[in-house]
Amino acid sequence: MGLVVQKYGGSSVADAEGIKRVAKRIVEAKKNGNQVVVVVSAMGDTTDELIDLAQEVSPIPSGREFDMLLTAGERISMALLAMAIKNLGHEAQSFTGSQAGVITDSVHNKARIIDVTPGRIKASLDEGNIAIVAGFQGVSQDKKDITTLGRGGSDTTAVALAAALNADVCEIYTDVDGVFTADPRVVKKARKIDWISFEDMLELASSGSKVLLHRCVEYARRYNIPIHVRSSFSGLQGTWVSNEPQGDRPMEQAIISGVAHDTSEAKVTVVGVPDKPGEAARIFRAIADSEVNIDMVVQNVSAASTGLTDISFTLPKAEGRKAVAALEKTRAAVGFDSLRYDDQIAKISLVGAGMKTNPGVTAAFFEALSNAGVNIELISTSEIRISVVTRADDVNEAVRAVHSAFGLDSETDEAVVYGGTGR
Amino acid sequence: MGLVVQKYGGSSVADAEGIKRVAKRIVEAKKNGNQVVVVVSAMGDTTDELIDLAQEVSPIPSGREFDMLLTAGERISMALLAMAIKNLGHEAQSFTGSQAGVITDSVHNKARIIDVTPGRIKASLDEGNIAIVAGFQGVSQDKKDITTLGRGGSDTTAVALAAALNADVCEIYTDVDGVFTADPRVVKKARKIDWISFEDMLELASSGSKVLLHRCVEYARRYNIPIHVRSSFSGLQGTWVSNEPQGDRPMEQAIISGVAHDTSEAKVTVVGVPDKPGEAARIFRAIADSEVNIDMVVQNVSAASTGLTDISFTLPKAEGRKAVAALEKTRAAVGFDSLRYDDQIAKISLVGAGMKTNPGVTAAFFEALSNAGVNIELISTSEIRISVVTRADDVNEAVRAVHSAFGLDSETDEAVVYGGTGR
């Protein structure tokens, strides 16, 4: 007996068959004695089709109208899902983000949730209904306009509702069996992780793991909502993400949770920066003012002979051009020699809280890369993560070598990808 | 200078090209110094596609969820239209039925409007925006659930908003040039009507003319909102529907407004009904209890020799089976002889307020039919309409003969149908 929030992504409800399959799973949870709230994304490619339509009528669609358009997608999937559940003999009601009380700021296309007031959801549950809620959307507090939450928005809706309803668990259904020790498309012997802490999951998410987005995990950690990531196709137990081990099999935390990689970034190096106070600030102020998000930042000691140093950072490839243009404008003021831009890089990260108390981890990581003949270009660490930048060509080899060196390989190839490519 | 409400049907916004064409027309009205409110239907076949999807997941989709689903269609078209207008350099904001203040009762799939509170629309207009409103939908007063208005709902939304905003005119854009003296697909020489009174338009609408629905005209008459029915393709002056002649060319009302026909009905005859008080009531109570809507009802004097009479009525073909079943159950109580069901009929109606003061109209009507060799099976009249039932096979011939006999033929074939079939 409890309150369960389930979230289904677009690939799980891509067509009528998918919707009917998901409906059965939801009814199962209800039959097990739970109150059930379901957050659903738009069907399969609906959102992309709507974006195409928008491009046809206007090259730069406006934020408010674009959000109004996109939210039609969840409206369709949630209504169909409610119908499919009723057809199985159970009562269901669908609610838009606004009706569900998802209150956001007014930043269209990437709004932040500021409050959740799920009065109508509670009332619907109390009447014995299954409540279906549109993911990815809310209503702005000041203007009462429809907003969308941006990437990973439906996951965030689910966690936010789970927090507001004090749910026992937030189940995120997707097209893989859970979170794996590495990307199963690269490492055939990747293992499903049964349980992982919020902290390790946050590091994996920010290091390239795509199953859960950082934002959603951060929200879950803040409100201490256990997440259960699992497949809507297989019905197997997936991965629990929480403060404490949960589920049927409590277990010890592994030293290393997994290996993540990311090939979506590029590297910028500012060469020959005078090593004096204020120069780095000037550089990163210019980057910040051009609204570019940066990831790793590395600066080494300057050469004593020249008093010059190099500063490197990584950033999304899509923002490379903007960053370089912003930096060129500061060249005279900063007095650096040159800029190097390199988009043929990959980032490989080893994540695990256990490395705090196991001093040999860094050495073993670098040895594994060395044995695989992979050169390291940048290194950056946090308390529970080590990241390196390598050539993009080396990434698969490097991930497999590290995964194996830390004893993460499973006996068998266990990873299966069921549906499309996820949300 | 004024306030104009424009309504565009699904065939006018069937694709990106259509949306851009409509956007230009809207901007034109704005440039002419008007405040502009636009009511828009779902794009082309969107609603049908959504209905198909619903059928796939549930054979009997529920009212509430079905409405939630269908309203996604207008959400898409209105957001795209707002974007297209902005792309032309004008400000536009889209509003759902709920946001526009369209308050309805709770009868899903065919809700009635009980109030319109267009505060947000007024505010948006005052800021200089063009306001785009989703047709066909509202929000229920008691439960705050999304509702749809059923057939012709977008036209009704437009007229209701025009009334609430005290608009100067409600322009209904469609895929024909206006209301014609007969269906142009049947009568090539049908003429566009420049002006028609609410009363005559109501009779035409309830006699089979499909350009405007009875419900929308009734609403416009109650609040005295002039309607201008015109083509979104040609830009020509269309048909004004109002109390008084309007537009550039004030004109006298014609004796006969037009000839309408309807082949969607069937005829039921109850044969051998005892001619005594209460029998007709018993019959029509049974029909009403089975929720069948009937149209014409005809009973002639009974034969003196038998004391028995026949009662005939017409009804939508789709409801024929239900009505016959209901009547069969009353056979013993009423004591009638037999039931005859005939779905190979057509109804032809001559409409015009002028017939009140022109006694020869009925005779001329029957003579025209007789000359065309068309047999009359039932006759029913109102103050400004004469309707007859004939064989379905005779309908086109009959309509052309009557149209010609009353001098309605134009010199040329002027009717053009531009787009699809509209709503």
TrEMBL record, chains A, B:
Its EC number is 2.7.2.4. It holds the Pfam family ACT_9. GO terms for molecular function: kinase activity. The keyword Kinase applies. Coiled coil: none annotated. It comes from the Bacteria. Residues 268-353 form the ACT domain. Keywords: Amino-acid biosynthesis, ATP-binding, Diaminopimelate biosynthesis, Kinase, Lysine biosynthesis, Nucleotide-binding, Transferase. It is an enzyme of class 2 (transferase). It catalyses: L-aspartate + ATP = 4-phospho-L-aspartate + ADP. Pathway: Amino-acid biosynthesis; L-lysine biosynthesis via DAP pathway; (S)-tetrahydrodipicolinate from L-aspartate: step 1/4; Amino-acid biosynthesis; L-methionine biosynthesis via de novo pathway; L-homoserine from L-aspartate: step 1/3; Amino-acid biosynthesis; L-threonine biosynthesis; L-threonine from L-aspartate: step 1/5. Belongs to the aspartokinase family. Catalyzes the phosphorylation of the beta-carboxyl group of aspartic acid with ATP to yield 4-phospho-L-aspartate, which is involved in the branched biosynthetic pathway leading to the biosynthesis of amino acids lysine, threonine, isoleucine and methionine. This is Aspartokinase. It comes from Streptomyces lunalinharesii.
